[in-house]
Amino acid sequence: MPVLSPSSSSLFVFTCFLILFFSTLNATNAKRRPRQISVNYYAKSCPQVEQLVGSITSQQFKEAPVSAPATIRLFFHDCFVEGCDASILIATQPGSKLLAEKDAEDNKDLRTEGFDTITRAKTLVESKCPGIVSCADILAIAARDFIHLSGGLNYPVKKGRWDGKISMATRVPTNLPHANSTVDQLIKLFSSKGLTIQDLVVLSGAHTIGFAHCKNFLDRIYNYKGTKQADPSIDPRLLKALKMSCPQVGGNADIVAPFDVTTPFVFDHAYYRNLQSKLGLLASDQGLFLDPRTKPIVQSFGEDKAKFFQAFSAAMDKMGSIGIKRGRRHGEKRKVCSMHM
Ligand code: HEM
Protein backbone atom coordinates (compact mmCIF):
# COMPACT_ATOMS: atom_id res chain seq x y z
CA MET A 1 0.00 0.00 0.00
CA PRO A 2 1.50 3.33 -0.95
CA VAL A 3 2.18 5.60 1.96
CA LEU A 4 2.18 9.33 1.58
CA SER A 5 5.28 11.03 2.84
CA PRO A 6 4.70 14.37 4.64
CA SER A 7 5.75 16.21 1.50
CA SER A 8 3.61 14.12 -0.86
CA SER A 9 0.61 14.39 1.47
CA SER A 10 0.91 18.16 1.52
CA LEU A 11 1.19 18.04 -2.27
CA PHE A 12 -1.98 15.93 -2.30
CA VAL A 13 -3.79 18.43 -0.06
CA PHE A 14 -2.52 21.30 -2.19
CA THR A 15 -3.71 19.56 -5.39
CA CYS A 16 -7.13 18.95 -3.84
CA PHE A 17 -7.27 22.60 -2.87
CA LEU A 18 -6.40 23.66 -6.41
CA ILE A 19 -9.07 21.38 -7.89
CA LEU A 20 -11.62 22.72 -5.43
CA PHE A 21 -10.53 26.30 -6.06
CA PHE A 22 -10.78 26.05 -9.84
CA SER A 23 -14.03 24.13 -9.77
CA THR A 24 -15.69 26.81 -7.60
CA LEU A 25 -14.13 29.47 -9.83
CA ASN A 26 -15.66 27.74 -12.86
CA ALA A 27 -19.00 27.46 -11.13
CA THR A 28 -18.89 31.15 -10.23
CA ASN A 29 -17.92 31.99 -13.80
CA ALA A 30 -20.78 29.89 -15.11
CA LYS A 31 -23.17 31.62 -12.72
CA ARG A 32 -21.62 34.95 -13.58
CA ARG A 33 -22.15 34.75 -17.31
CA PRO A 34 -24.62 37.57 -16.86
CA ARG A 35 -24.91 38.72 -20.39
CA GLN A 36 -26.34 35.49 -21.74
CA ILE A 37 -29.80 35.77 -23.14
CA SER A 38 -31.53 33.16 -25.28
CA VAL A 39 -34.48 32.73 -27.61
CA ASN A 40 -35.94 29.90 -25.45
CA TYR A 41 -35.45 31.61 -22.10
CA TYR A 42 -39.13 31.34 -21.09
CA ALA A 43 -39.69 27.90 -22.71
CA LYS A 44 -40.60 26.35 -19.35
CA SER A 45 -41.65 29.33 -17.23
CA CYS A 46 -43.89 31.16 -19.73
CA PRO A 47 -43.92 29.37 -23.10
CA GLN A 48 -46.80 31.49 -24.45
CA VAL A 49 -45.12 34.86 -23.82
CA GLU A 50 -44.62 35.71 -27.50
CA GLN A 51 -48.25 34.86 -28.35
CA LEU A 52 -49.49 36.99 -25.47
CA VAL A 53 -47.42 40.01 -26.50
CA GLY A 54 -48.33 39.33 -30.15
CA SER A 55 -52.05 39.50 -29.42
CA ILE A 56 -51.58 43.02 -28.02
CA THR A 57 -49.21 44.30 -30.71
CA SER A 58 -51.46 43.17 -33.55
CA GLN A 59 -54.47 44.79 -31.87
CA GLN A 60 -52.53 48.02 -31.27
CA PHE A 61 -51.32 48.01 -34.86
CA LYS A 62 -54.92 47.84 -36.11
CA GLU A 63 -56.19 50.49 -33.71
CA ALA A 64 -53.23 52.89 -33.88
CA PRO A 65 -50.61 52.12 -36.58
CA VAL A 66 -48.26 54.78 -35.11
CA SER A 67 -47.69 52.32 -32.26
CA ALA A 68 -45.19 50.65 -34.62
CA PRO A 69 -42.68 53.52 -35.02
CA ALA A 70 -43.41 54.62 -31.44
CA THR A 71 -42.40 51.26 -29.93
CA ILE A 72 -39.36 50.71 -32.16
CA ARG A 73 -38.03 54.12 -31.13
CA LEU A 74 -38.85 53.43 -27.47
CA PHE A 75 -36.74 50.28 -27.62
CA PHE A 76 -33.82 52.19 -29.17
CA HIS A 77 -34.00 54.94 -26.54
CA ASP A 78 -34.16 52.31 -23.80
CA CYS A 79 -31.13 50.37 -25.04
CA PHE A 80 -28.89 53.41 -25.54
CA VAL A 81 -29.41 54.78 -22.02
CA GLU A 82 -28.40 52.34 -19.22
CA GLY A 83 -28.87 49.36 -21.58
CA CYS A 84 -31.98 47.42 -22.61
CA ASP A 85 -33.51 47.30 -19.15
CA ALA A 86 -36.85 49.11 -19.47
CA SER A 87 -35.42 52.10 -17.56
CA ILE A 88 -37.22 54.29 -20.13
CA LEU A 89 -40.58 53.10 -18.76
CA ILE A 90 -40.04 54.30 -15.19
CA ALA A 91 -42.19 57.28 -14.16
CA THR A 92 -40.71 60.14 -12.13
CA GLN A 93 -41.79 59.86 -8.48
CA PRO A 94 -44.50 62.45 -7.78
CA GLY A 95 -42.92 65.50 -6.14
CA SER A 96 -39.37 64.30 -6.86
CA LYS A 97 -36.82 66.67 -8.36
CA LEU A 98 -34.90 63.71 -9.79
CA LEU A 99 -36.48 63.22 -13.18
CA ALA A 100 -36.62 59.72 -14.68
CA GLU A 101 -35.31 59.02 -18.22
CA LYS A 102 -38.69 59.37 -19.89
CA ASP A 103 -38.98 62.97 -18.67
CA ALA A 104 -35.65 64.05 -20.19
CA GLU A 105 -35.98 66.66 -22.95
CA ASP A 106 -34.83 64.17 -25.62
CA ASN A 107 -37.60 61.74 -24.64
CA LYS A 108 -40.45 64.24 -24.38
CA ASP A 109 -41.76 63.47 -27.86
CA LEU A 110 -41.79 59.68 -27.49
CA ARG A 111 -45.37 58.85 -28.34
CA THR A 112 -47.72 57.50 -25.70
CA GLU A 113 -48.73 54.63 -28.02
CA GLY A 114 -45.36 52.93 -27.39
CA PHE A 115 -45.77 53.11 -23.60
CA ASP A 116 -49.43 52.03 -23.87
CA THR A 117 -48.47 48.96 -25.89
CA ILE A 118 -46.01 47.78 -23.23
CA THR A 119 -48.45 48.49 -20.37
CA ARG A 120 -51.16 46.44 -22.09
CA ALA A 121 -48.81 43.59 -22.97
CA LYS A 122 -47.36 43.49 -19.45
CA THR A 123 -50.83 43.38 -17.86
CA LEU A 124 -51.77 40.41 -20.04
CA VAL A 125 -48.46 38.59 -19.47
CA GLU A 126 -48.67 39.14 -15.69
CA SER A 127 -52.18 37.65 -15.64
CA LYS A 128 -50.86 34.40 -17.17
CA CYS A 129 -47.24 34.25 -15.91
CA PRO A 130 -47.04 36.41 -12.77
CA GLY A 131 -43.58 37.67 -11.81
CA ILE A 132 -41.75 35.87 -14.63
CA VAL A 133 -41.29 38.10 -17.68
CA SER A 134 -39.36 41.38 -17.50
CA CYS A 135 -40.64 44.61 -19.01
CA ALA A 136 -37.33 44.81 -20.91
CA ASP A 137 -38.08 41.53 -22.71
CA ILE A 138 -41.65 42.58 -23.47
CA LEU A 139 -40.31 45.77 -25.08
CA ALA A 140 -37.81 43.79 -27.20
CA ILE A 141 -40.55 41.38 -28.38
CA ALA A 142 -43.02 44.19 -29.11
CA ALA A 143 -40.46 46.14 -31.18
CA ARG A 144 -39.81 43.03 -33.30
CA ASP A 145 -43.56 42.39 -33.68
CA PHE A 146 -44.10 45.88 -35.05
CA ILE A 147 -41.22 45.54 -37.50
CA HIS A 148 -42.85 42.35 -38.76
CA LEU A 149 -46.38 43.81 -38.80
CA SER A 150 -45.09 46.77 -40.87
CA GLY A 151 -43.55 44.50 -43.51
CA GLY A 152 -40.11 43.64 -42.07
CA LEU A 153 -38.69 40.29 -40.98
CA ASN A 154 -40.00 38.21 -38.09
CA TYR A 155 -36.58 37.62 -36.51
CA PRO A 156 -36.14 35.59 -33.29
CA VAL A 157 -35.77 37.70 -30.12
CA LYS A 158 -33.40 36.63 -27.36
CA LYS A 159 -34.83 36.99 -23.86
CA GLY A 160 -33.66 36.89 -20.25
CA ARG A 161 -33.10 40.59 -19.57
CA TRP A 162 -33.95 41.88 -16.11
CA ASP A 163 -35.36 45.35 -15.51
CA GLY A 164 -32.96 48.06 -14.36
CA LYS A 165 -32.96 49.82 -11.03
CA ILE A 166 -31.65 53.14 -12.33
CA SER A 167 -33.56 55.65 -14.45
CA MET A 168 -32.14 59.18 -14.53
CA ALA A 169 -32.92 61.97 -16.97
CA THR A 170 -29.38 63.32 -16.58
CA ARG A 171 -28.00 60.20 -18.29
CA VAL A 172 -30.02 60.81 -21.47
CA PRO A 173 -28.52 63.70 -23.51
CA THR A 174 -25.02 62.28 -23.92
CA ASN A 175 -26.27 58.79 -24.75
CA LEU A 176 -28.71 59.61 -27.54
CA PRO A 177 -27.99 60.96 -31.03
CA HIS A 178 -29.55 64.21 -32.22
CA ALA A 179 -31.07 65.34 -35.50
CA ASN A 180 -28.05 67.55 -36.19
CA SER A 181 -25.37 65.07 -35.03
CA THR A 182 -22.52 64.75 -37.50
CA VAL A 183 -21.61 61.34 -38.93
CA ASP A 184 -18.46 61.49 -36.85
CA GLN A 185 -20.47 61.99 -33.66
CA LEU A 186 -22.86 59.21 -34.65
CA ILE A 187 -20.02 56.78 -35.33
CA LYS A 188 -18.45 57.59 -31.96
CA LEU A 189 -21.71 57.23 -30.05
CA PHE A 190 -22.61 53.93 -31.71
CA SER A 191 -19.11 52.62 -31.21
CA SER A 192 -19.35 53.44 -27.48
CA LYS A 193 -22.30 51.01 -27.43
CA GLY A 194 -20.33 48.29 -29.24
CA LEU A 195 -21.98 49.03 -32.59
CA THR A 196 -20.13 49.38 -35.89
CA ILE A 197 -20.48 51.87 -38.75
CA GLN A 198 -22.52 49.26 -40.61
CA ASP A 199 -24.81 48.91 -37.54
CA LEU A 200 -25.27 52.69 -37.50
CA VAL A 201 -26.37 52.76 -41.14
CA VAL A 202 -28.56 49.68 -40.86
CA LEU A 203 -30.30 50.75 -37.63
CA SER A 204 -30.94 54.22 -39.05
CA GLY A 205 -33.03 52.31 -41.61
CA ALA A 206 -35.72 52.20 -38.88
CA HIS A 207 -36.48 55.70 -40.20
CA THR A 208 -38.21 53.94 -43.08
CA ILE A 209 -41.33 54.35 -40.91
CA GLY A 210 -42.51 57.10 -38.61
CA PHE A 211 -42.46 60.86 -38.33
CA ALA A 212 -40.46 63.80 -37.01
CA HIS A 213 -41.60 67.13 -35.56
CA CYS A 214 -40.70 70.34 -37.40
CA LYS A 215 -38.30 71.49 -34.66
CA ASN A 216 -35.98 68.61 -35.61
CA PHE A 217 -35.35 69.91 -39.14
CA LEU A 218 -36.31 73.60 -38.94
CA ASP A 219 -32.68 74.80 -38.97
CA ARG A 220 -31.98 72.49 -41.86
CA ILE A 221 -34.66 74.07 -44.06
CA TYR A 222 -34.21 77.74 -43.05
CA ASN A 223 -30.78 78.29 -41.57
CA TYR A 224 -28.44 75.40 -42.26
CA LYS A 225 -25.23 75.77 -40.21
CA GLY A 226 -26.03 79.45 -39.68
CA THR A 227 -26.03 80.26 -43.44
CA LYS A 228 -29.63 81.55 -43.46
CA GLN A 229 -30.08 79.18 -46.38
CA ALA A 230 -31.51 75.67 -46.63
CA ASP A 231 -29.24 72.66 -46.64
CA PRO A 232 -28.22 72.30 -50.31
CA SER A 233 -28.56 68.53 -50.04
CA ILE A 234 -32.39 68.63 -49.86
CA ASP A 235 -34.46 67.97 -52.96
CA PRO A 236 -36.18 71.32 -53.83
CA ARG A 237 -39.66 69.75 -53.98
CA LEU A 238 -39.25 68.21 -50.52
CA LEU A 239 -37.89 71.53 -49.24
CA LYS A 240 -40.95 73.38 -50.53
CA ALA A 241 -43.34 70.87 -48.96
CA LEU A 242 -41.52 70.98 -45.61
CA LYS A 243 -41.53 74.78 -45.60
CA MET A 244 -45.28 74.78 -46.21
CA SER A 245 -45.93 72.49 -43.24
CA CYS A 246 -43.31 74.04 -41.00
CA PRO A 247 -43.07 77.86 -41.04
CA GLN A 248 -39.87 79.34 -39.62
CA VAL A 249 -41.75 80.99 -36.74
CA GLY A 250 -45.15 80.56 -35.19
CA GLY A 251 -45.86 77.08 -36.57
CA ASN A 252 -47.88 74.44 -34.78
CA ALA A 253 -45.48 72.48 -32.56
CA ASP A 254 -47.46 69.26 -33.13
CA ILE A 255 -46.97 69.10 -36.91
CA VAL A 256 -44.89 66.15 -38.08
CA ALA A 257 -43.43 65.09 -41.43
CA PRO A 258 -42.87 61.50 -42.56
CA PHE A 259 -39.29 60.18 -42.63
CA ASP A 260 -40.02 58.18 -45.76
CA VAL A 261 -42.05 60.34 -48.12
CA THR A 262 -42.75 57.36 -50.36
CA THR A 263 -44.02 54.63 -47.94
CA PRO A 264 -44.20 56.09 -44.37
CA PHE A 265 -45.97 53.08 -42.81
CA VAL A 266 -44.14 50.28 -44.62
CA PHE A 267 -40.96 48.75 -43.28
CA ASP A 268 -38.93 48.48 -46.49
CA HIS A 269 -35.62 49.76 -47.85
CA ALA A 270 -37.04 52.94 -49.38
CA TYR A 271 -35.16 54.98 -46.73
CA TYR A 272 -31.86 54.28 -48.49
CA ARG A 273 -33.23 55.05 -51.96
CA ASN A 274 -34.62 58.30 -50.58
CA LEU A 275 -31.20 59.31 -49.23
CA GLN A 276 -29.75 58.77 -52.69
CA SER A 277 -32.44 61.11 -54.10
CA LYS A 278 -31.83 63.87 -51.52
CA LEU A 279 -35.06 62.97 -49.73
CA GLY A 280 -33.63 62.39 -46.26
CA LEU A 281 -35.58 64.25 -43.54
CA LEU A 282 -32.98 64.90 -40.83
CA ALA A 283 -29.45 66.19 -41.37
CA SER A 284 -28.27 63.03 -39.57
CA ASP A 285 -30.09 60.86 -42.15
CA GLN A 286 -28.86 62.69 -45.25
CA GLY A 287 -25.35 62.83 -43.79
CA LEU A 288 -25.10 59.05 -44.17
CA PHE A 289 -25.15 59.44 -47.95
CA LEU A 290 -22.67 62.30 -47.91
CA ASP A 291 -19.92 60.71 -45.84
CA PRO A 292 -17.54 58.38 -47.71
CA ARG A 293 -17.50 55.94 -44.76
CA THR A 294 -21.25 55.36 -44.83
CA LYS A 295 -22.25 56.14 -48.43
CA PRO A 296 -21.34 52.69 -49.87
CA ILE A 297 -23.42 50.99 -47.16
CA VAL A 298 -26.41 53.23 -47.99
CA GLN A 299 -26.00 52.32 -51.66
CA SER A 300 -25.83 48.60 -51.02
CA PHE A 301 -28.98 48.58 -48.85
CA GLY A 302 -30.77 50.76 -51.42
CA GLU A 303 -30.07 48.08 -54.01
CA ASP A 304 -30.84 45.00 -51.96
CA LYS A 305 -33.88 44.79 -49.66
CA ALA A 306 -33.13 41.21 -48.51
CA LYS A 307 -29.62 42.24 -47.50
CA PHE A 308 -31.01 45.17 -45.50
CA PHE A 309 -33.58 42.95 -43.77
CA GLN A 310 -30.96 40.38 -42.75
CA ALA A 311 -28.55 43.05 -41.52
CA PHE A 312 -31.34 44.88 -39.67
CA SER A 313 -32.38 41.73 -37.78
CA ALA A 314 -28.77 41.06 -36.79
CA ALA A 315 -28.22 44.67 -35.70
CA MET A 316 -31.44 44.71 -33.62
CA ASP A 317 -30.20 41.55 -31.90
CA LYS A 318 -26.90 43.31 -31.18
CA MET A 319 -28.58 46.51 -29.99
CA GLY A 320 -30.94 44.40 -27.86
CA SER A 321 -27.95 43.02 -25.97
CA ILE A 322 -26.53 46.39 -24.87
CA GLY A 323 -25.98 46.67 -21.10
CA ILE A 324 -28.42 43.95 -20.11
CA LYS A 325 -28.85 43.10 -16.44
CA ARG A 326 -29.22 39.65 -14.95
CA GLY A 327 -30.04 38.72 -11.40
CA ARG A 328 -31.29 40.46 -8.30
CA ARG A 329 -28.10 42.37 -7.57
CA HIS A 330 -28.32 44.48 -10.73
CA GLY A 331 -31.94 44.07 -11.73
CA GLU A 332 -35.53 43.50 -10.81
CA LYS A 333 -38.63 41.97 -12.37
CA ARG A 334 -41.18 44.73 -12.13
CA LYS A 335 -44.86 43.98 -11.72
CA VAL A 336 -45.78 47.36 -13.17
CA CYS A 337 -43.33 48.61 -15.79
CA SER A 338 -43.48 52.25 -14.71
CA MET A 339 -42.61 51.54 -11.06
CA HIS A 340 -39.55 50.06 -9.37
CA MET A 341 -40.27 47.09 -7.08
C1 HEM B 1 -28.69 57.40 -35.96
C2 HEM B 1 -29.10 58.34 -35.19
C3 HEM B 1 -30.54 58.70 -34.95
C4 HEM B 1 -31.01 59.96 -34.81
C5 HEM B 1 -30.21 61.24 -34.89
C6 HEM B 1 -32.44 59.86 -34.61
C7 HEM B 1 -33.27 60.93 -34.40
C8 HEM B 1 -34.65 60.87 -34.43
C9 HEM B 1 -35.51 62.00 -34.35
C10 HEM B 1 -35.07 63.45 -34.16
C11 HEM B 1 -36.79 61.55 -34.48
C12 HEM B 1 -38.06 62.38 -34.53
C13 HEM B 1 -38.73 62.48 -33.19
C14 HEM B 1 -39.93 63.38 -33.24
O1 HEM B 1 -39.83 64.49 -33.74
O2 HEM B 1 -40.99 62.98 -32.75
C15 HEM B 1 -36.72 60.12 -34.64
C16 HEM B 1 -37.79 59.29 -34.82
C17 HEM B 1 -37.70 57.93 -34.94
N1 HEM B 1 -36.57 57.16 -34.74
FE1 HEM B 1 -34.69 57.83 -34.72
N2 HEM B 1 -32.80 58.54 -34.63
C18 HEM B 1 -31.67 57.79 -34.83
C19 HEM B 1 -31.59 56.42 -34.83
C20 HEM B 1 -32.67 55.58 -34.67
C21 HEM B 1 -32.58 54.17 -34.46
C22 HEM B 1 -31.28 53.39 -34.31
C23 HEM B 1 -33.85 53.69 -34.39
C24 HEM B 1 -34.34 52.30 -34.16
C25 HEM B 1 -33.66 51.20 -34.36
C26 HEM B 1 -34.74 54.82 -34.59
C27 HEM B 1 -36.11 54.77 -34.69
C28 HEM B 1 -36.92 55.85 -34.87
C29 HEM B 1 -38.33 55.75 -35.22
C30 HEM B 1 -39.10 54.48 -35.54
C31 HEM B 1 -38.82 57.05 -35.25
C32 HEM B 1 -40.25 57.51 -35.54
C33 HEM B 1 -40.99 57.68 -34.24
C34 HEM B 1 -42.45 58.03 -34.41
O3 HEM B 1 -42.95 58.29 -35.50
O4 HEM B 1 -43.13 58.01 -33.35
N3 HEM B 1 -33.97 55.94 -34.71
N4 HEM B 1 -35.41 59.73 -34.59
Question: Summary?
Answer:
Its cofactor is heme b; Ca(2+). With 341 residues, the chain is mainly alpha-helical.
What does this molecule look like?
It is found in: Secreted. By secondary structure, the chain is mainly alpha-helical. The protein has two domains: 49-176 and 321-332, Peroxidase, domain 1, CATH 1.10.520.10; 183-319, Peroxidase, domain 2 (Orthogonal Bundle). It has helices spanning 6-32, 49-63, 67-80, 112-128, 135-149, 183-192, 197-204, 218-222, 236-245, 270-276, 283-290, 295-303, 305-319; strands at residues 163-164, 211-213, 256-258, 331-332. The strands form two sheets. The chain has a two-stranded antiparallel ribbon with strand order 1-4. Helix 3 crosses helix 4 (112-128), helix 4 packs across helix 5 (135-149) and helix 12 (295-303) crosses helix 13. The radius of gyration is 24 Å and the shape is globular. The model is unreliable at 1-34 (pLDDT under 50). Protoporphyrin IX containing FE is lined by residues 66, 69-70, 72-73, 76, 109, 111, 177-179, 181, 186, 203-204, 206-207, 209-213, 216, 282, 284. Protoporphyrin IX containing FE binds at residues 66, 69-70, 72-73, 76, 109, 111, 177-179, 181, 186, 203-204, 206-207, 209-213, 216, 282, 284.
